[in-house]
Amino acid sequence: MQLILLKVLPFAKTHWREISIVVLVLVVFGKMHHNHRLLMQTYEQQRQALQEQIEGLKEIHAEELRKKEEALDSYREAVEELEDKYKEEKQEHRESIRKDKERIKKQFSQNKEELANEINNVFDFEYVSM
Questions:
Q1: Torsion of CA 57, 63, 68, 74, to 10 degrees
Q2: Which of 33, 62, 70, 108 could form a disulfide with 115 if both were Cys (CB 3.0 to 4.6 A apart)?
Q3: Do residues 51 and 59 make contact, with C-beta atoms less than 8 angstroms apart?
């Protein structure tokens, strides 16, 4: 062991700069390799976190689309109900008008004076005979 030390020590004394450069290069290379490994781990963690966020957003989007479809279906049903109700009331109104016309024709066909008074009462304007 001493023999090796006696041979290495003079070599180290004469070539200490080269040895220190080699050691520093090895340290820098090791540090770069360690940093690269940490960077790759961080990248993979970020990628997984972003993938989970994307999946969450897809689920939220699907839920929003489902709610939108439900709202549209509800709206369509409400519009159909309103249209049906409108048609019924329109038909009832037409029937009422028809009945009123028949009643007026029967009631006032002989008595034009009474028809004029009815017009004055309903529409609030004056009948002028010719």
A1: -170
A2: 108
A3: no
